[in-house]
TrEMBL record, chain A:
Main location: nucleus
Intracellular or extracellular location(s): Nucleus
An individual GO BP term: termination of RNA polymerase II transcription
Record's keyword annotation contains Transcription: yes
Swiss-Prot/TrEMBL keywords: Nucleus, Transcription, Transcription regulation
Gene Ontology molecular function terms on file: transcription coregulator activity
Name recorded for this polypeptide: Mediator of RNA polymerase II transcription subunit 18
Species annotation: Cynara cardunculus var. scolymus
From TrEMBL, chain B:
A GO term from the CC aspect: mediator complex
Location in or out of the cell: Nucleus
GO molecular function: transcription coactivator activity
Subunit-structure text: Component of the Mediator complex.
Principal subcellular localization: nucleus
Main function: Component of the Mediator complex, a coactivator involved in the regulated transcription of nearly all RNA polymerase II-dependent genes. Mediator functions as a bridge to convey information from gene-specific regulatory proteins to the basal RNA polymerase II transcription machinery. Mediator is recruited to promoters by direct interactions with regulatory proteins and serves as a scaffold for the assembly of a functional preinitiation complex with RNA polymerase II and the general transcription factors.
Biological-process GO terms, alphabetical: regulation of transcription by RNA polymerase II
Species the sequence originates in: Cynara cardunculus var. scolymus
Superkingdom of origin organism: Eukaryota
Pfam families per UniProt: Med20
Record key words, sorted: Activator, Nucleus, Transcription, Transcription regulation
Entry-linked InterPro entries: Mediator_Med20
UniProt keyword annotation of Hydrolase present: no
Protein's name in the database: Mediator of RNA polymerase II transcription subunit 20
Amino acid sequence: MECVVQGIIETQHVEALEILLLGLCGVHRVRLRVHELCLKSGPNLAGKTVISAALVPKHQRSDFYVILSSLSPLGNKNSPFFFLCTHIALFAFYHSYRNCIPLYRTVRHVGGSMRGAGADQISVLVRTMVESKVSKNVLRLFYLLGYKLDHELLRVGFAFHFQRSAQITVTVSSVNKMLKLHATDEAVPVTPGIQLVEVTAPASAENYNEVAAAVSSFCEYLAPLLHLSKPGVSTGVVPTAAAAAASLMSYGGTTIM
Amino acid sequence: MYIRVLHWQPNAGHTVSSQILAEVSQCVESINGVKEGKWKATLSFYRPVLKEQANAAEFPRDFLGISLPEQPSKYYFVLRGQRLVLEADSTIQTIMEKLQSYKTRVALNFEGFQYQLGDFQLRVGKVVSIQSESLRGIVMEMEYRPISSWEKSHKIMGEFFDIWQEALSKRSLPGHFVHMEPNFGEFGLSGQYTLQHTAVQYATIMLQMIATAQSVRN
């Protein structure tokens, strides 16, 4: 299981957010470059569709990796960041930004979110999530099993991973689409000028309340710059963002007096 | 590490039995094999869950999943017809269950004992269906530990196999162990031995065991 919240921020304020996160987390950022190939089961193959939210790139040791996922077409027309998710994601990890030699890949299954009165009372989404590291021919396997490519995305940004009552990951990324199949070099932003912020933490059936509280508590520190909410509940940009960003940039020593 | 997976091929008119398995185990001990403990591998055949059965031909027929005791945290998929082997964390089984696109058709256990003979390890076990516990076959793994190069180990393993066959022949059992070396290159595997090679060997011997079972039935 994992707890997750999402929000959006204007690209011009991302540097301020990074300064804030650096101060809050006390760790260096990890560069993020995620190629997400989205699969769906073929027309004659059974498979349960699970409603879920956008996938979150998790912390990885390498700084360049690929996600292959099976998301169904975009679910919320108002926000390109939220998906109706069918049940599976495939990841691949690369040595470095340049040579693109795969180390390994990971399949991720993102299940349905927790529902009911208990779920409504907490401000983060709790959902099942299973990951499995796999060898590099995983995409060929899924094609042979009858899965089809649905769409692909490239996420570029950075992440912070730290311990604060829970193992929290914050990712800030721009989401890009490919004009030609697998042409990541020619990716263009889905929403120019806007970036996606996601906060996730692994949880279990026993401790998700504590983890959710830790995530919510952390999100309050980011409130002047952005508002984070359950995936699918888009709250837009925060009016105080510009002032908060200016203040942070000033504290960050980037303003010359 | 280099492993050769063998299976028992009964002579015409004979079938596998627990008695043969006991004799084989005794034979290992007679050549100074030291029993080390239990050993168990599992193999599942998967079938697609289709909306229309008429289109079954579009999907792979021989889709196997294998877990090996040498690496319990891993799971191996083999698409034999398409010459594909994939290594995954064992959590992939949970993901496959959640996907609900493929179901287990038949699940088999390979279970028995492991023996140490110098640089070699022998694993001898019965093949049983999880559902019925009926004996489906006998399997043997021969492992040569010092070298992982398939080419270099091959000759040494061949010599050991000859010694083993000679020892077993004295017992006049109604059958013999067969080794079918798959073309690992076709599966994209290198000369450096890995457990993916073992998974491919299991997929290959299953083909033989099914063929043998069918010929006996006919």
